[in-house]
Amino acid sequence: MDHHVVIAGAGPVGLWLAAELHLAGVRATVLEQRADRDERSRALTVHPRTLEVLASRRIEQPFLTEGVPLPGGHFGVLESRLDFRRLDSAFPYTLALPQARTEELLEAHAVDSGARILRGHRVAGFTEHPGSVTVTVDGPDGRYEIDAAYLVGCDGTRSVVRAAAGIAFPGTAPTVLGWLADVVLDRPPAPGYSYFGPEGTLMVVPMPGGVHRLVGITPADLTTTWPGDPTLDELRAKTIAMAGDDFGMHDPVWLSRYGDATRLAETYRKGRILLAGDAAHQHFPAGGVGMNVGIQDAANLGWKLAATVRGWAPAGLLDSYHAERHPVGARLTATSRAQVALMTAFDPVGLSLRGLFSELIAALPELNDRLAGRVSALDVAYPCAQAHRLVGQRAAEPEFLALSRADGYTLVDLTGAGGRLSALAGPHLSVHRAEPSRSGAGAVLIRPDGHIAWATDETDAGLIARQVTEALA
Known about the structure:
- By secondary structure, this protein is an alpha+beta fold.
- Helix content is 32%, strand content 25%.
- The protein has helices spanning 12-23, 48-56, 61-66, 99-113, 160-165, 232-243, 290-310, 319-343, 348-363, 365-376, 398-401, 461-471, and strands at residues 5-8, 28-32, 45-46, 68-70, 72-73, 82-83, 94-96, 116-119, 122-128, 133-139, 142-148, 150-153, 171-172, 177-185, 194-197, 200-207, 211-217, 249-259, 262-264, 269-270, 273-275, 281-282, 409-413, 429-433, 443-446, 452-456.
- Strand 25 (443-446) and strand 26 form a beta hairpin.
- The chain is globular and about 70 Å long.
């Protein structure tokens, strides 16, 4: 077999998946139909959970150095912004970093890990066999085939892989057209600026390199008639109508429109075909969560796929990818629809609703935390048979991030029992001693994606050893 896994799409999702596979000892080839990286950056926001994922592989520093940190986010562009500083994370903020740069950094990580990336190569179809899949590829020198164990579609909302697999993509048609402008501003507003009123909604976000992104919707944009990409004069007029100033905008880097079509793949796995990122879920880019959820899809899938290919996966592990991530996609699409409703509530009734909701966020810290946890994905927890309070949650303590490995579990010994658990270490299990943590646990077993697979409050090393052995069986 030429390659263990073929990945369609060299965006952030495909690149992270390729790196995870190689770090776990599985070869991957990434096929990207574009000959060159797209320098336009629809995604701009890197959320706290994604920063934790990057930190688990010790590559977060370039992102932190180059990104513009912002203390919070928004929900439906409500006047009361979400305060991420209250979140239990080593990264209680978002980063503004253009997707093109994010992709560049992730590609370097994937290549350093050993992945092969072929640009100008497009998946044309596939044939699935009992133990493999043959991928048909159109490349610069003509059509050819690759034999692989699995094919993963990370190829966007118009996924060729999803269509060829016959996976349904149900959802709702677009009802509104948002717009964005990456421009230079002579008179930029303060960071975190937003406007909402009868004239529309507007947000202005600073980007590296002296560029600002303006995103907005006006009542005239509540349409399904596609008018083409916007002009600078059009967006200047809309900005003045809302903000009373065009902020001195000039030298546009990119002007674009996008709709709120919302769809979710019926399944994330069909035999030897899997989906991740926009190939699995499409939604309005409210809060900048799409790329982040996609990378987190890849983090969940990567180790499970590698364990399956290499033969150390417990029974049913690969099926748990859909079981765990499809509900996250369903929540993502529902949350996006709710934000679109708030962002387009321009009439007096809608403005009253927005005012009330904004007042509640400001008055109830618990509501802020609940919404911030949802937008940032820090509250994602996976169902598990064990009833311990920590199981299924992410390992939130910063010191745990540095212990994570892509090719196996990590057992953190918090018992202070002098290393008696070290005998459990093996090819796919590392054992680390640590000081007792605020969680009160005696030991925690951390999955490669940073979520807790098993935990106990017991401190008896013999009992822990038996339970860990059973948990990994």
